[in-house]
Design a protein that fits this description.
- The chain has one domain (18-118): HPT domain (Four Helix Bundle (Hemerythrin (Met), subunit A)), CATH 1.20.120.
- Helix content is 76%, strand content 0%.
- It has 5 helices and no strands.
- The longest helix has 29 residues, at 90-118.
- The protein starts with 9 loop residues before the first helix and ends with a helix.
Length: 119
């Protein structure tokens, strides 16, 4: 198993603006829990198009952080929802996504704390 970092901010760091980076991370951390709750609710209701719509939104906002683990899980969720959960994995994938987000959230909060110290 190859180690993958939880995130890569190289895209944002090219802008060389720590205030902008802080704002982007803060918005992501503020918006994502609501999006995850909507994904979970749609999955619980077998609303497959609702799952797909919400994971598409999450994929766009997560891509800037290059969090490959979450992006891979989103792709798996898309496949499961697109197949109307015939693989029976949808609910487990939602839990996996929530757990991966928690790891990313903690890492991004640590990064924000470092930015504040160095400001």
């Amino acid at each position: 198993m190859t180690y993958q970092p939880l995130f890569d901010l190289s895209i944002l760091q090219e802008m060389d603006d720590s205030n902008f980076i802080t704002q982007i991370i803060s918005l992501y951390l503020e918006d994502t829990p609501k999006n995850l709750a909507e994904i979970k609710e749609a999955a619980a209701n077998n609303d497959f198009s609702g799952v797909e719509k919400r994971i598409h939104k999450l994929k766009g906002s997560t891509a800037i952080f290059q969090s490959q683990q979450i992006l891979d899980t989103i792709d798996e969720l898309h496949e499961s929802a697109n197949g109307e959960n015939k693989d029976g994995r949808l609910h487990d994938l939602v839990i996996k996504l929530e757990n991966e987000y928690e790891l990313l959230r903690n890492a991004l909060n640590e990064y924000l704390a470092i930015l504040k110290i160095n400001a």
